[in-house]
Amino acid sequence: MTNEELYGQAQRGNADAFERLHKQLGNFIRSIALEACRHFGCSDSAAALLLEDLCAEGGLELWERIRSGGYDERAGKLTTYLYPFLRGRMYRYLETNLGVMSLSKDEMERVRLVQRFYHVEGKSAEEIAAALHLSDEATARLVGYNTHFLSVFDLQGSEEEEDPFERLLPDRQGASAEQIVYRKVGLELLEQLFQTLSSRDRSILGHTFGVYGYEKLSADELGLREMLSPDGVTKARRTALEHLRQRYPSSALYRWRRAFRLMRDVWVDVR
Predict the structure, then answer these.
(1) 146: phi > 0 → left, psi -120 to 50 → alpha, else beta; which?
(2) pLDDT-derived band of residue 6, with 50, 70 and 90 as boundaries?
(3) What is the per-residue pLDDT for 82?
(4) What are phi and psi for residue 164, nearest 5 degrees?
(5) Which of 17, 161, 237, 243 is deepest in the core (most CB within 10 A)?
């Protein structure tokens, strides 16, 4: 079946036709992604890391073009119509994200630390600058990096080896008994906090990170499942995570972490 025929069926709500069309256009989307990487001067290693995300962006744009219904078969091939839309979306993605992806591991850790202070702990830019001995300009730059503030460290299942809570401990040379308890209880309370969210927010975050019994879905798969546009997926993720953060100060997890820090500080003073 031709691309044009599948497009027509997908536009009429045939999900199988969309899946077939998406698969049929896979090499086409990939070629545009590679072209975008070359245009932005990405190294081979950077292109390898970016390719999956760019192809996902292309899939989302394909879905958006089907929803918009702007294609007229009399004007030419479907691929000719799609090309500028897919390329433009991938270019915008690279313009927004390439700066972050080019950071070194140490610098990325710094970005995460500053953004955690700013977004999660509610510290002002001035407080962060003073605590980390940064200039106001450097702090503003680190806060402003577009990381979408979504990562496995923001929401993580207990089966993961790396622990988001241990990252906040000053000494990670080995897991003490206190750290093991902190990890176990913290992750249990995080799941309790997660369960207080609405079913939609749980679905969005659960499928984003593949935790708590939810299958991990790519951005385009999540968009199809929730009937969201690409921008809608991003906004839904941010909104759900913000709802989680809003519940955090009144949660058992928050009280447990404060109590743990207090006990740790008292123990340090005693020693």
Answers:
(1) beta
(2) very high
(3) 93
(4) -65, -25
(5) 237
> Two tokens at 98?
């390439």
Determine the average pLDDT of the residues in 20-30: 93
Cβ 84 vs Cβ 75: under 8 Å: no
Hey, what's the torsion of the CAs at 35, 36, 41, 44, to 10 degrees? -70
Give the pLDDT of residue 243.
86
Share of the chain above pLDDT 70, in %: 73
How much is the average pLDDT of 234-254? 83
Amino acid letter, residue 14: N
Q: Give the relative orientation of helices 15-24 and 3-11 as an angle to the nearest 10 degrees.
A: 150
Reported confidence tier of residue 57, pLDDT bands at 50, 70, 90: confident
**Full-prediction pTM beyond 0.70?**
no
Q: Tell me the CA end-to-end span of the chain in Å, nearest whole number.
A: 75
Q: Which residues contact 204 (CB under 8 A, 6 or more apart)?
A: 222, 226, 236, 237, 240
- In the CATH scheme, what is the code of domain 3-101? 1.10.1740
What CATH number does the domain located at 150-270 have?
Answer: 1.20.140
Q: Which residue ranges make up each domain of the chain?
A: 3-101, 104-144, 150-270
Question: CB–CB of 33/197 below 8 Å?
Answer: no
SS3 of 92, please? helix
Please, which residues have CB within 8 angstroms of residue 20's CB and are 6 or more apart in sequence?
1, 6
CA dist list (Å): 230 to 3, 15, 61, 226:
22, 17, 7, 11
DSSP state of 159: T
